[in-house]
Amino acid sequence: MSEPQKSEQEELPAELRSKLEELGDYLVWRIGTNSSEDVLIVRVGLASNTPRFSELSSLRNVGERKIEELVKEGRVRVEWVE
Length: 82
Prior knowledge:
It contains four helices and three strands. It is α+β, with helices and mostly antiparallel strands. The N and C termini lie far apart (49 Å).
């Protein structure tokens, strides 16, 4: 019988996991698709840059099923918003 697989969170060192959780308190994000591409777009930025999100092109809402499909197919783009 094989060992149970650890989740990704369990594989991170405790100190790194703690720092990432702290950083999460300062981030905002938007997830969606645009009208010209069938790609999941994840926009991430610091909370202090929230006004900049409104200057970018709009993202369409996308359901969980579509998100899973795009992720499985590797059609994801992460954009850092400054």
